Every structure is written in C-alpha cells, then in structure tokens.
Amino acid sequence: MTAIWIDAKLSDANARQALYDGDIVILAPTKASLEMVALGQELLEQAFGPHDPRKIHDHKTPEEVASVLAKMKPIFIHHPEHKRLIPQLMEEHGVDIDRLYFDVPRMRSAYPSHFLTSGIAYAFHPHRDTWYSAPQCQLNWWFPIYPLHTNNAMGFYPRYFNEPVANNSEIYNYYEWNTKNRASAAEYVKADTREQPKPQQSLEPVTVRYLPPPGGIVLFSGSQLHESVPNITDLARYSIDFRTVHLDDLKQRRGAPNVDNRSTGTTMRDYLNARTLQHLPDDVIRMYDDGTAIVGRVLNYNDATKAPVAAE
Ligand SMILES: [Fe+2]
Fold first, then answer.
1. Contacts of 47 by beta carbon, 8 Å cutoff, 6+ apart
2. What is the mean pLDDT of residues 140-152?
3. Rounded distance between C-alpha atoms, residue 186 and residue 205, angstroms
C-alpha cells in the first residue's frame, strides 16, 4: 500500500517515517519553491531566448541545446541563492534546519524523445537513488518549473518499494563514478555510454505520475523505484530536484528498507547543513564508509566539478 499525503501538514518526524514506509508526500508551492522556479525560468529564458525553452527543439540542434545546457546548468546548480532558499523551504515545511543536510539542487531537462535524451539531458531509466550510493534515509524533493503533462513527468513504480528488483547496482561506486566521469555530460549527445545501475528484469509497466503545479513538490524516499517518463509530448520538461538527509536518522540508521541495493561508496560527503552549510560530522560519514574511499578517488560531487549525473 502506498499512501499519498497531499499538503497534510504532517510533523517532520511523521512525514519522514511515512516516506521511509513508502508513502509519497505532495506539497503545495511556497514562497521559496516559487523563487527557485523563477530563478530556473529566468536562466532558461536568458539561455534560449527569444525562443520558448519548452520549444527549443524546434529551433536548435541537439548539439546546440547540449552546449547551452552545459553552460547554464552549473550556474543554476551553484547559484548562491539556493543556500538561502533551500533552508527557507525547509522551514516553510516545519523541518528543523539545524539537523537537516541538503545537497546542491539540479535542474533537469527532458526533451521530446526523438530529440535529446542522453548526456546533459539524460532520460533516467527506472532506478532507486540508493543504487547510486545514496543512504537509505535520503529524501528527494522534486518540482516542475513549468506546468507538467502526463507524458513529460516522472513515473513511480510503487509496487517495487518493498519488492526486490534484479539489478546490477554492484557495478556502481560513487567515488569511481566521480573520478571517471569528470568529463562534461555535454559530450554524450547521441548516446550515453556510461554504464549505470539498471533493472535486470522486466518490470510491470505501471507507473504513477504526480503532476503538481510549478513549485509544487513531490517528496519521496530515494529508495522508491522511479524514472523519467519518455517524453512523447512536443514540450520539453524542466524541473528542479535536490536531496536531504536528517542527522538523527543517519545516526540511528533509520530509513527505507534496503531490498536490493548493492552499490558502494556513499554520497554522505555531498550534504551541507541547512543552517551552517557545514558538511556532516566525520564520525557520521565514517558510519557509512565501506572502505572504497581510497586515495586518488574523487569523494564528492563538488570536487568532481563537472560530474554530470545524480539520479533524478
Ligand atoms: Fe532518482
């Protein structure tokens, strides 16, 4: 059973427990989320003007679009306003920001499927973020920049939250990925040859798609099986997502059940405290280290300055 909580004003502790049990939380837009949306729109419209960013595939080649995104997305990701807006967004939802850690927000783009679905606009196959070395208590906050359509949204496979999926997550080590894939994702215009964890079985092809308005949030466990829906509309989809972890849950190893993840390494060095912007304490990071953090490997996303992918 998957329950969907819609703007339910849950306490933060109750919301986290519901999410670890496989529920989904939908949140109405707030001042902070709408400011992030406005920032995303502004950057997109500057980059692609005078054209509508949602129709840019009618005006530019995939190579041209990939090249524009390669410049614009890092500006969005590292924009200083997010360090004010994400803590504000957390407080708007009753989260104790002294104990909350977040990573930099990504902007995603999903173009009509004949156009550009690799590299910088990678269309994510079904996956759990935990297959990409996220801790079991990671939560994902996802919201659209423009109105969604059924076929350019995210798809969730709720039945597999508690059910193992045959997969090859054992191929993925976070540090190895950061080290090997520092080259710009803009190089992967035609096809993405980077090997990623994927299901190794056929899935029941039933996805649920949540369609909040711009700035409205889909909040879910990083252990949910989810994907970028193949975009068969004629409009590009742009969205924002970032991830959070709660210090108490990390320390007590609370989180979603691990039904099938065998990835190695950890994304623990990516998260910043929402009050102080400091990294997690070393002793907490060490709880999640598995011996693969060896000399010469790039241990976090910001040091792999061009590392393109964290799973949508
Ligand atoms: Fe993801």
1. 53, 68, 69, 71, 72
2. 96
3. 30
Query: Where residue 187 falls among pLDDT bands split at 50, 70, 90?
Result: low
Distance 311 CA to ligand 1 centre (A): 4
> CB burial class (10 A; 0-12, 13-18, 19+) of residue 46?
exposed
Give the H or E element holding residue 156: strand 154-156
Report the pLDDT value the prediction gives residue 113, as an integer from 0 to 100: 81
pLDDT (mean) for 191-212: 89
Alpha carbon distance 268, 288 (integer Å) = 8
**Could you tell me the distance, in angstroms and rounded to a whole number, from the CA of residue 50 to the centre of ligand 1?**
32
pTM as predicted: 0.93
- Beta strands 4-6 and 24-27: pairing type? parallel
Q: Is the pLDDT of residue 120 over 90?
A: no
Q: What is the mean pLDDT of residues 242-263?
A: 98
Which H helix or E strand runs over 250?
helix 247-251
Length of the chain: 312
Cα(19)–Cα(3) distance, rounded to whole angstroms? 9
Q: Extract the tokens encoding 57.
A: 């595939």
Amino acid found at 229: V
Gap from CA of 220 to ligand 1 centroid (Å): 10
- Report how far residue 243's alpha carbon sits from residue 312's, in angstroms, rounded to the nearest whole number: 10
277: pLDDT strictly greater than 90: yes
Report how far ligand 1's centroid is from the alpha carbon of 128 (Å). Answer: 6
List the chain domain ranges: 4-288
Q: How is domain 4-288 classified at the CATH fold level?
A: Jelly Rolls (2.60.120)
Question: How would residue 123 be classed by pLDDT, with cut points 50, 70 and 90?
Answer: low
Q: How far is the CA of 119 from the centre of ligand 1 (A)?
A: 15
Cα 153 to averaged position of ligand 1 atoms, centre (Å): 13
Quote the Cα angle for 244-25-239, to 5°.
65
